[in-house]
Amino acid sequence: MLKKLKNLIRYKLFRSMDNDDISYSELKELMKENSNDLILLDVRSIQEYKESHLDGAIQIADYEINMKAKQYLTDKSKIIVVYCQSGSRSKKVCKQLQKQGYEKVYNLYGGLDEI
Questions:
Q1: Which CATH architecture does the domain made up of 17-114 adopt?
Q2: What is d(CA 21, CA 38) in angstroms, rounded to the nearest whole number?
């Protein structure tokens, strides 16, 4: 338990934003400027999504992204902002989507925990 807590603290203190990370304030600006070209993608479980989610978000669990991305994310040129609770699952999904050819994929830095 103590080891997990130390790792969490280390992760929160020393992880800096990458080029494909955006803050919540940047997301709000994107939503104002690009509402028609923006997809919010919640990669938490369906239960987490039902409990709370960002308005307008679609839900595809992180473990289903490879199977469902082509079905729900049909336009690879749209801006996709991926989020989860803490930002770690969404970070992995961002990398997967980029490998699949999606052009503008961003991770909500810190996830919903930072809002």
A1: 3-Layer(aba) Sandwich (3.40)
A2: 15
pTM of the model: 0.86
User: Is residue 51 within a helix (H) or strand (E), and if so which, with residue range?
Assistant: helix 46-51
Amino acid identity for residue 67 in this structure? M
C-alpha to C-alpha distances, 88 to 72, 83, 111, nearest whole angstrom: 22, 9, 8
Residues 21-36: tens digit of each pLDDT: 999 999 999 999 988 8
Query: Smallest Cα–Cα separation from 25: which of 85, 90, 114?
Result: 114
Is residue 78 within 8 A of residue 41, CB to CB? The reply is no
- Quote the CA–CA distance of 10 and 104 in Å, as a whole number: 29
Type of residue found at 99: K
